[in-house]
Design goal:
This protein is of the alpha/beta class and 808 residues long. 38% of the residues lie in helices and 15% in strands. α14 runs parallel beside α17.
């Protein structure tokens, strides 16, 4: 690339892992910071204003005053670099264009192009070569990472603060003045998520790599195309690891032309020539460029096919070579993975390897059965509980763990999924990657419901409640904590029950025996549960729940701290600070919708209760189902059903109203709408919305047009397009589009295409929206259906329910 100019630095030599070149004004060089959380998984962590002691029998939560929070120490320079690699061939102009875009782009640059064109190689080289920000340079991969977890990584790279995840506002304050260069590879985030991420470090420059150009008008873009003829030939020659065979120059030129200069195709063509095993290298025929994968697979051995089946089963999840060696019974897994990477069949990452997405169909044509679920689950369970395995190790493999649990559940081995999720959940919590922790907790809850494992139900219900509390989603936390108390007591675990009782003082209190307005109508919704009935559930027996003050009484302590388990207000040290901000994890909540999450949790108590909570916005339906659950499940379960129904009946339909009230008092955070907490505090006394009074005369629906919010807190607009039809805009990696709803009398439906990871149409997505009588909320049913030929798997197929709330 010639001599480095004044803005560019030469990549330093070394081991290819953590080094960095000289940089102006840098206090340290050669270091790569990545805050890991090692040690016993039972130790405490601090998330926002909460101190959490992670425990396998239910984590303990206490509130700490602001002055008791950890004090992060600024690193002299934030340096988190990818593995070093060779200079990419033929990318001099692209690197110049990227450098110019960084200088002129106003803080946001998007590098985009088709798969295999070399975006990752360019970003990795640029992170080492281009001038860093004044305060450092950070490289991240966004594959299978939530926005909140990415923001936490940026914070950890900039500050020394073990076991601490600050609140969102605290992260923004700490990063507000830092001029960083942040490279984010493999970005698959929508516009709101990208804004949430970039808002976390407002003074930083972000360089994002993605398949498509999605930031029209909001960033400077650099389109990456195939290499030119000379660069293509140079790359092909280099990957042949020897001189171009005599007499094959013309064939090589034609091969490069038909490959469109795509580096991945040229890498595979050279790899095919190498593995032929002939004394002289023979290039594939130019006509074979579109069919290189089948030709490569014909030349692979049994061990290589086993490894590729493992990577295909894990659907792009990262896996270290050590795991590949154990699972595939390979003595030298590093050499095996390096060889597969050289053939373009797997991709080397910072923590190991992941399978190339376009190789999966070819794997499935040759190996019809996925990697055994029992072997995956047993291996990862044993590994996660072995000495020396850190929370950071487990977080790095979280996606692989999640897929292993899903596979076991689908193959009738939900008990293995339960054991795996329970083994890794404490470590994921300690890693402070609250997004992936939530996904594994949800997976464990579903598996526990399948097996009927009451101990696991209690654990996952409790931990999900703690996570919601840390995210600031207190209504859901209250629902799950009430159920956790009952579930722990049913299995005789007083330790877990006490932990849940203690945590209840930081969540809105529920009123046992009262099922909220509309009780006893008897009409069950689509997910209202197995039992439908009439009448209002009677008072619940005393099963040890803390005394609960009236929603509007003076028994609620100052700053949103209700009376504790003993009936007294919380101690001054706990009650003094205002209600906590949502932690950084709330930048992008990965929770299911309000109705779905509550439903899954209620299912822990009884089958009828599961349906009651899943009904979400339908308080009347839930009341009947809750009563049936109490009758069939015994008096000991009545508290769980009633508690869940009170929170749902009083809170679910009014979460958005409560958030708006909090915003008026200065406590709600503007911007993304992801994970905004239903909380009180800050500017005034906490308030709980009055119970809704059902109207004697039902009103006619006003139509679907307007701004809505779903159970996860995302907001979106539905516009009227005439003749009783409505349009909802969509954004996806397979291009934009819209949903066109048609219908009448408060019921509307829409159908769109369902794509696989390669943007091929595989089936349909159908949505049905049914407005409530006042048109202020709606029950939403989404069904994904597809036909598969065995070469791919529809991971979203099935039916999901959600609740929309009208914002304006």
């Amino acid at each position: 690339m010639g001599e480095p100019d004044m803005h560019r630095r030469e990549p330093a030599g070394g081991d290819g892992q953590n080094g960095s070149g000289p940089r102006r004004g840098a206090g340290r060089t050669g270091d790569s910071y990545s805050a890991s959380v090692d040690g016993d998984a039972s130790g405490p962590v601090v998330v926002g204003n909460h101190n959490v002691v992670i425990d396998g029998d239910g984590s303990h939560v206490t509130l700490i005053a602001p002055q008791q929070r950890p004090a992060p120490v600024r690193r002299e320079q934030a340096v988190l670099l990818p593995r070093r690699q060779r200079e990419p061939i033929g990318r001099e102009r692209d690197l110049d264009a990227l450098e110019a875009a960084v200088e002129e782009g106003g803080g946001l640059v998007q590098v985009w192009g088709p798969p295999g064109v070399g975006k990752s190689a360019l970003l990795r080289y640029a992170a080492h070569c281009l001038e860093p920000g004044r305060d450092g340079v950070i490289f991240l991969s966004a594959i299978d990472h939530e926005v909140d977890d990415l923001a936490q990584k940026i914070f950890e790279a900039c500050y020394e603060a073990p076991d601490y995840a600050p609140s969102r506002t605290e992260v923004q304050r700490l990063l507000a003045q830092l001029e960083l260069m942040v490279y984010v590879d493999d970005v698959d985030l929508d516009l709101r998520q990208l804004r949430a991420l970039t808002d976390a470090a407002p003074a930083a420059t972000f360089v994002l790599a993605s398949r498509e150009r999605t930031l029209l008008g909001e960033s400077t873009s650099v389109e990456l195309r195939g290499l030119g003829p000379e660069a293509s030939l140079s790359l092909l020659t280099r990957e042949l690891r020897g001189p171009l065979p005599q007499g094959q120059r013309a064939a090589a030129d034609e091969l490069c032309t038909l490959a469109l200069g795509i580096p991945l195709l040229l890498l595979r063509a050279a790899g095919l020539a190498r593995v032929d095993g002939l004394s002289s290298v023979t290039l594939p025929r130019p006509a074979e460029i579109s069919g290189l994968l089948p030709l490569l697979f014909q030349r692979l051995g049994a061990a290589q096919l086993r490894a590729l089946n493992l990577f295909a089963t894990l659907q792009g999840a990262e896996l270290s070579a050590g795991h590949v060696g154990i699972l595939c019974d390979v003595s030298d897994p590093d050499a095996l993975c390096t060889e597969l990477a050289g053939l373009g069949l797997v991709v080397a990452t910072e923590r190991g390897y992941r399978g190339a997405a376009d190789a999966v169909p070819e794997v499935r044509r040759r190996v019809s059965e996925p990697f055994p679920a029992d072997r995956l689950c047993d291996h990862f369970t044993q590994w996660a509980t072995a000495p020396g395995v850190t929370p950071a190790d487990v977080a790095d493999h979280a996606r692989a763990l999640e897929i292993a649990a899903q596979l076991a559940e689908r193959h009738g081995q939900a008990d293995r999924a339960v054991r795996l999720a329970r083994a890794v959940s404490p470590l994921l919590a300690r890693s402070l990657r609250v997004g992936v922790w939530g996904r594994l907790l949800d997976q464990g809850q579903r598996a526990a419901d399948q097996t009927g494992d009451n101990a696991a139900r209690a654990y996952f219900t409790h931990e999900r409640a703690v996570r919601f509390l840390l995210l600031g989603q207190k209504v859901l936390a209250a629902t799950l904590l009430a159920q956790a108390v009952v579930l722990w007591r049913e299995i005789g675990n007083s330790h877990g029950a006490q932990a849940a009782l203690d945590a209840q003082q930081y969540a809105p209190q529920v009123v046992p025996g009262h099922v909220g307005p509309g009780a006893g109508t008897g009409a069950g919704g689509a997910d209202a549960g197995s039992g439908a009935g009439s009448g209002t559930a009677g008072p619940a027996p005393d099963v040890g729940a803390p005394p609960v003050p009236d929603a509007g009484s003076s028994q609620v302590a100052a700053h949103g701290m209700p009376a504790g388990p003993t009936g007294s207000t919380t101690p001054a040290t706990s009650a003094a600070p205002p209600a906590p901000d949502a932690p950084v994890s709330a930048l992008h909540s990965t929770s299911q919708s309000v109705g779905q999450s509550s439903g899954a949790a209620s299912g822990s108590a009884a089958s009828g209760g599961s349906g009651a909570a899943a009904g979400g916005g339908a308080a009347a339906s839930g009341a009947a189902a809750g009563g049936a659950a109490a009758a069939s499940g015994g008096m000991g379960l009545l508290l769980a059903g009633a508690a869940a129904l009170v929170v749902i009946g009083l809170g679910v339909q009014q979460i958005q109203e409560w958030n708006r009230d909090s915003a008026n008092s200065g406590t709600s955070r503007s911007g993304t709408g992801f994970g905004d907490a239903a909380r009180a505090g800050g500017g005034g006394e906490p308030t709980w919305p009055d119970e809704p009074t059902p109207s004697d005369e039902p009103t006619e629906p006003d139509g679907l047009a307007g701004k809505w919010s779903n159970g996860a807190g995302d907001t979106f607009d539905v516009t009227e397009s005439g003749d009783g039809s409505y349009t909802l805009g969509l954004s996806s990696t397979c291009g934009g589009g819209s949903l066109e709803f048609t219908g009448s009398n408060g019921r509307y439906s829409a159908t769109t295409e369902l794509h696989d990871q390669y943007c091929s149409v595989r089936g349909t997505k159908e949505m049905t929206v049914t407005l409530a009588s006042d048109a202020q909320s709606a029950d939403v049913v989404t069904t994904d259906s597809a036909e598969t030929d065995g070469t791919w798997e529809c991971t979203t197929c099935g039916t999901e329910t959600d609740t929309w709330t009208r914002v304006e």
